[in-house]
Sequence to fold (142 residues):
Amino acid sequence: MMVLDVDKGTTQIWTELSKILGTKVAGEDPYYHVFDNLYIVPVPKKPGVETAIEDLFDAATLGYVHDGKTFDKDSDKDKPGTYSKNTFATKVVRDNRSTIDFSGFEPLLEAFEDVQAHYASRVSAYPGLSPAVPVASPVLVP
Fold:
């Protein structure tokens, strides 16, 4: 499974996936079966806006002030007054994982379950396919 944001950074991927699948794809379905065991799972799209995985966090987490800085989800580097995606992941999310509300991720996790069920049904229908390996529940690793 590949998880992709639904934003300007993935536009070309959605275009190429549309060509492969022979239908317009814009990241609005829970998942896309590309071929064999390759599935694309878009971050659940919020109506009318680009959606990145960070958007699944609640407002309190996104608004967390770390070392006097606020989160800039478009930045890969810490800057004066803002911190990057890496700092968000390692200093905010990881360090506060026991108190963060992850309920915004439920639609994404449900899509993972749907993909596993879809693949399992394909494996049972075609003996030549290898069975899916059970996946443990997602956890954040310290």
About this structure: The helical segments are 11-21, 59-62, 85-96, 106-125. The two ends are 23 Å apart (CA to CA). The chain has a mean pLDDT of 89.
